[in-house]
Amino acid sequence: MVEINIMSEMLKHNSRILIGIDGLSRSGKTTFSKRLLQTLSDQQVMGVIFHLDDYIVERSRRYGTELQQWEEYYHLQWDVEQVTTDLFERVLNSDSVTLPLYHSKKDQCGNVTVKLPDKGVIIVEGGFLQREEWRSYLDYCFFLECPREQRFKREDPLTQRDLNKFKQRYWKAEEYYETTVNPAFLADRVLYT
Length: 193
Description:
The chain has 193 residues and is α/β, with parallel strands linked by helices. Helix content is 43%, strand content 23%. It is globular and about 50 Å long.
């Protein structure tokens, strides 16, 4: 992978670099992130992955508001300001970062501290990663492109039953992101999954 050479070159001039793995729901971001981390490890490059979906907010903050469903998903899924401050602004210059980890069964967030390597690659993966508030922090960004039909087939069969939720919440938010941000264009590399 040519990007490993690019990352190695970047690390010659920086103690840490921040790599983004962007893509729409079920495009393969987590799988690709794990493979990338393993490839880096094989090259003796230290790294850590942050999954943005681990840091979403409680349901009461992202459902049943005055906003449309897609707006809730895009604008309220994360506390964008807190993620900016506690992750993106600190990850390159701190020994560790502390973030509110979301526990789905309890619908609660509890702080977790992640130790960072002294030198290495920080991978952040998640949807809407190249939004205006976060894009400038990324040293290099992949966008995983995958057709909606294929991504939908990757959903759990029980989840697929609520097609209206996909139409009103997820897909409209994704369309908004693609239209207003154009993540495939902004990314340093587009991968088709």
